Amino acid sequence: MANETNPFQEGLYAGLGLALRAKEKVEEFGKKITEDYQMNEEQGKKFMEDLVNQSEETRTRLDDIIEAKLEAYMKDAGIPSKDDMDKLSKKIDELGKKMDSSK
Q1: Residue 33 Cα distances to 9, 11, 28, 59, 87, angstroms
Q2: What is the pTM of this model?
Q3: Could you list the residue range(s) of the whole structural domain that residue 25 is in?
């Protein structure tokens, strides 16, 4: 059972894997297309820039989707958010100060 993953892990791994491989794969693809279609240097450079920009936009949209899915999973699982933890920590600090001042 140690090898089973949950949706949180799957989303995290998918996002990390795509981010690590995306730029390398886009560049490889761009070089192949540039060569296959015999583009000159200027055309190839423009094509590569467009391809990289498009992949960045897609990755940003994917990151947003993954983040939303992870937030939903955490909420459904009852896992507090960082904001929730920060608010709780602040309240604990305030209570601690009140207790110290009442002594």
Answers
A1: 35, 31, 9, 21, 52
A2: 0.54
A3: 7-101
